[in-house]
Amino acid sequence: MNDKALRLGTRRSKLAMAQSGQVADAVSQVTGRPVELVEITTYGDVSREHLAQIGGTGVFVTALRDALVRGEVDFAVHSLKDLPTAQPEELALAAVPLREDPRDVIVARDALKFTDLPRGARIGTGSPRRMAQLNAYARAHGLDIETVAIRGNVDTRIRYVHDGELDAVVLAAAGLNRIGRIDEVTDFLSVDTVLPAPGQGALAIECTADNADLIAALGELDDPFTRVAVTAERSLLAALEAGCSAPVGALADLLADGQIVKEMRLRGVVGTTDGTRMVQLSTTGPVPETHEQALALGRELAAEMLAQGAAGLMGERAQ
Ligand SMILES: NCc1[nH]cc(CCC(=O)O)c1CC(=O)O
Hints:
Elements: E1 6-10, H1 14-31, E2 35-39, H2 43-46, H3 59-69, E3 75-79, E4 91-95, E5 104-108, E6 121-124, H4 128-141, E7 145-148, H5 154-162, E8 168-172, H6 173-178, E9 187-188, E10 203-208, H7 212-218, H8 224-239, E11 248-257, E12 260-271, E13 278-285, H9 291-307
Parallel strand pairs: 1-2, 1-3, 6-7, 6-8
Antiparallel strand pairs: 3-10, 4-10, 5-8, 5-9, 11-12, 12-13
Helix pairs in contact: 8-9
This protein binds the ligand NCc1[nH]cc(CCC(=O)O)c1CC(=O)O.
């Protein structure tokens, strides 16, 4: 038996270390091999520039992928929502584990809920998707909020609220869960209010495409439904030709009748960051049984969204 340590390439951020550590334990369990974390610094970690300005899609991912291709590490864990939609040929998406809570959340001062924020409240987020949907909701419900562009890691963002610079920030529940700060949440946003980013809450475990043994071993951590759902969500994103910094939300979920899964629903939204113009559509159909069917579902919904003018709403970037 092979008991040589597997090398897991990871970013150094608290979130990356937390999710890599959790996956390392699971991989150790299924392979019976020790897993050693190898820290890799990415351009996104050192850059002070705004994410959108340095190219948006995948800045955090590239350095890890380079290390895989060079053979410096055996596998890597990414937040699936940060993965570019194009899968490089030399790499395999070996596992998509069971997704955690996909929702966005608010961390606000004084334990405030989103809808209880006072007039003129300032809400920080670096995401045009979150801005668009929060502003659209505010317009529709007579809330007076100002979305403020911020960046930085999860700790930095929460500090804006504790320091009194902002009334609230928007974050992903999954990230807070993974770093053990879910108690900071003052409001879980319904996905009817803010549709999450495609793939939000899910992880991607990648290794090189030629490593059949490792692909098979990591495959034990795969959750087939999560994979189908995120495949449809990311296919929608790709068909809209939108990068990770575009204002696109997507979520696939199962519609069940008691214990019996009946259908899958895919919802998508695109909007201008000021929330004045939105295209939001959903489609429901049989649960896809193949990768190709999942891709087709995303493409079909994207085509309907484009027919309703979605392309005209995506030119924007956060400032
Ligand atoms: N944009 C950064 C990012 N990438 C992944 C997560 C954690 C959530 C996830 O894995 O989906 C976060 C933080 C956030 O959006 O609050």
